[in-house]
Amino acid sequence: MLIFEMGSEGRNATAQFEEPTEVSDIPARHLRGCRAGLPEVSELQVVRHFTNLSKKNFSIDGQFYPLGSCTMKYNPRGAHRAASLPGFLNRHPLAPEQFSQGFMACLFELQEYLKDVTGMQAVSLTPMAGAQGEFAGVAMIRAYHDSQADSARSEILIPSAAHGTNPATAVMCGYTVREIPVTSDGDVDIDALKGAVGPQTAGLMMTNPSTCGVFDRRIQEIADIVHGVGGLLYYDGANLNAILGKVKPGDMGFDVLHMNLHKTFATPHGGGGPGSGPVGVNDRLSPFVPTPVVQRRDDGTYFWADRDQLPLSIGRLSAFMGNAGILLRAYAYARLLGREGIHRVGEYATLNANYMAARLAEAGFQLAYPNRRATHEFIVTLAKEAKELNVTAMDVAKRLLDYGYHAPTTYFPLLIAECLLIEPTETESREEIDGFVDAMISILEEAHRTPELVSAAPHTMPVKRLDDVKAARDLDLAFEGS
Amino acid sequence: MPFVPHTKTDERVMLDAIGVGSIEALFDEIPAELRNGQLVETPTGLSEMSMLRVMSERANQDVIGLSFLGAGAYEHHIPSAVWDLASRGEFLTAYTPYQAEASQGTLQLIYEFQTMMCRLTAMDVSNASVYDGATAMAEAILMAVRANKKSKSKRLLCAGNIHPHYLEACRSIVSNQNIEFEVIPYRDDTGTLDLEYLDTRLSEDFAAMVIAYPNFFGGLEEVDHLTDWAHENSMLVVGVVNPMALGILGPPGEWGEQGADIVVGEAQPFGIPIASGGPYLGYMCCKKTIVRQMPGRIIGRTIDLDGREGFALTLQAREQHIRRAKATSNICTNQGLLVTAATIYLSLLGDNGIHAVASRCHTNMMLLLDKLTQIPGVRLRFDGPVFHEAVVQLPTSAKTILQKVAAENILGGYDLVEVDEGLSDCMLCCVTETKNDEDLSVLTSALAKAIGGHSADL
């Protein structure tokens, strides 16, 4: 039932506001003529309604959530609490510097840690999600070429396994996109890359480890090829968790990157955000970072570096300071883990993925890249099952819900048929992973024995599979009843 | 280390199952010369207790007494239930609702949010949010250029009295697509848009006009006139609207003859703490006719295989994960958790509540202006109605005065020299329902003292 359907005229959560006042000095033509039609419910009704809605969600807190490329690791409660301290929550974004030193100290140190982790020379924290970080990164590539009076570069190269945000971002920055194929072992096709680069190449956007769940072994050669024609290398940090504390993107030859703090630094995803996508750059691109950036004076006080200090900046990307509260959570997370903890993130994320891949392979599942090491994630392809048993990757994903596991990422990357992209993360225990593998084995048996059970799944969720065609055809995007 | 549950035995069993001798062996495909992730600047780890101690000290450094700062971030009462509910792990730690059957809670909640925003703005359709008010405006501009079939122009008329940070962010975001802004000046006497200026641009082709309501100075534009003028000249109308103001002000869907085409803004006033500027919540509504040009997630109500009502992401053919380079935007993650908070907030307040809060904000602002303008040398800079913010002119530089009151732990307002050199003796003050008469008197006395007048009897 919708909240609009449970109300009664004149009912309200009356503790939450005081009597209205007469508005006498605004001309009538500006005033609202009739009620908007918001819910009319009691406070208890609100609490019960949203509590019950929450129970219809899978979440990290409730379920194992091995969603590939999304790094659904435990979100420490302590980080949430730290960012919710009253001094942080009540700080106005335009508060003068003397009322902002505590907040700015956290941000400054976070910038330093992120430089340390990525091997970059400068960091800007303002981008509000991975996609905005990508935008900032590619806009900086463009600003750099423009500053070199090298404006003929019109093309961004993107491997075919890339996230959809990469090509969409390149277009937002005014570039055309050229896709580079991936070889059968998951690495970028070097010959194709050599054939594609030229004076029109502005840069290459790449995720490494890629969304194929493998580390591109020839990354240094790729960097040389792109740099050789004057292009720059962009690192999509979606999979940074795999190499956290092991390898630095700056050492691989990347000039610019974004990090997804809502993945790698364990900030909660919130049912679709907020994210946070800080960018890191090498010296070549540091004059162009988006503002504001926190800087420290010789006397130890902090200030906002803006256009005055960074005249070549690509500019501001948000009204204030990006998703500040998410930055505080990431800072708290980094303090909890510390240097030694961060070193182990990539190790145990990789251990868990390789263990799960080995167990699934042993159980008869086909890995997309059986001859490669898995990174923090790996791909299972169900092409054989789809053909022989008429049970698809989507069916298996839906059936997993009945077993109490969130589904892995399905049908991505697009180049592997009937794929499940599985990322367990370092915070899951061996027992949890074993449980998931057992569920997969059981579903495979069901697929042989009673395939209709799998293809009609899920059976235990609040709803069965939804009619997406109807949703798009008979658009119902807002309730019209009262 | 924290949060990694592996025991030595686990590690051994797992490595054996993989068939390698050590964790390091799992990285053997990475060229050896790259395997140097050694951290040097990052300190060693802390327990939760010690981390909270560090952060509490930092947070306490930034505590202020009384604030009259607004300028795009507004302090309102946040009902306790809002974050008690929004912080439930089922909302907090879920991902984007790709698996609809396991995400009906978030999906229904977003559908309810979309409904509330449509009703408040009197628009047909809402999306599931974008990052913040500034990026909502940028997306609205891109959308308007795509959606305006009558004009091929990539130029816009944009209110010169819009939040300056919004304008700056929009320039950063859309400039690479060769979109140009023509800024409409504001009148020196009212701070509202100069309608006469518009007629000097009649012969030119613009894709859209962007109007701020209330404008950055808190004032109310002649939105009916502006909307009709823009439509007569084949432009789409983009309203950048503080949704809290719609508790008392007419909705943008009813501006002029046909209403605004796209309405966006910052929904932070709905239950979201000011928290240093984010995470907030950009909202985005439009007319049904142009919904396919809308960026971001949209939730639709549909049925399942058994005919039961359910909710799902819809119109995904607009989005980057399907359309890639041809998507309407690169946006992926948005502000789901803040949508959750705003939806709970609006449910608690209802029509009566939002009307009460908005009216009390306005009345408190008028009370403050009465008090402040009794200080010798202090006057209201602009004529005309305001919502809950206004520009107060001081007898000397605002910077000096604001520094003096800050020394008493009061933030008196926003120094407008940041926006316009000509307003260096002006500050932008905001009052919401959270202030009482005593708060207003405290500011008045502090300002009077700072200005050097007599604070008695105010």
Tags for this entry?
heterodimer; A: 482 residues; alpha/beta; 7-stranded mixed sheet; 16 helices; B: 458 residues; Aspartate Aminotransferase, domain 1; Aspartate Aminotransferase, domain 2; 2 domains; 4-stranded antiparallel sheet; 13 helices; 14% strand
Main sheet: strands, sense, barrel of chain B: 7 strands, mixed
Count of beta strands of chain A: 13
CATH first level of the largest domain in chain B: Alpha Beta
Structural class of chain A: alpha/beta
Work out the helix count of chain B.
13
List unreliable stretches of 5+ residues of chain B.
454-458
Oligomer: heterodimer
Tell me the strand percentage band of chain B. 5-15%
CATH topology heading of the largest domain in chain B: Aspartate Aminotransferase, domain 2
What is the correct CATH architecture of the largest domain in chain B?
Answer: 3-Layer(aba) Sandwich
Task: Characterize the structure shown.
The complex is a heterodimer of chains A (482) and B (458). With 482 residues, chain A is of the alpha/beta class. Chain A is 37% helix and 11% strand. Chain A has a domain at 78-336: Aspartate Aminotransferase, domain 2, CATH 3.40.640. Chain A contains 16 helices and 13 strands. A seven-stranded mixed β-sheet of chain A has the order 1-7-6-5-4-2-3, with helices on both faces. In chain A, helix 6 (165-172) links the parallel strand 2 (155-159) and strand 3 (176-180). In chain A, helix 5 (130-147) crosses helix 6 (165-172) and helix 11 (324-362) crosses helix 14. The two termini of chain A are 12 Å apart. Chain B is globular and about 80 Å long. Chain B has two domains: 66-74 and 351-451, Aspartate Aminotransferase, domain 1 (Alpha-Beta Complex), CATH 3.90.1150.10; 80-344, 3-Layer(aba) Sandwich (Aspartate Aminotransferase, domain 2), CATH 3.40.640. In chain B, strand 5, helix 9 and strand 6 (236-241) form a beta-alpha-beta unit. In chain B, the strands form four sheets. Chain B has a seven-stranded mixed β-sheet with strand order 2-8-7-6-5-3-4, with helices on both faces. Chain B is an alpha/beta fold and 458 residues long. At the A-B interface, helix 1, helix 2, helix 3, helix 4 and helix 5 of A face helix 1, helix 2, helix 3, helix 4 and helix 5 of B.
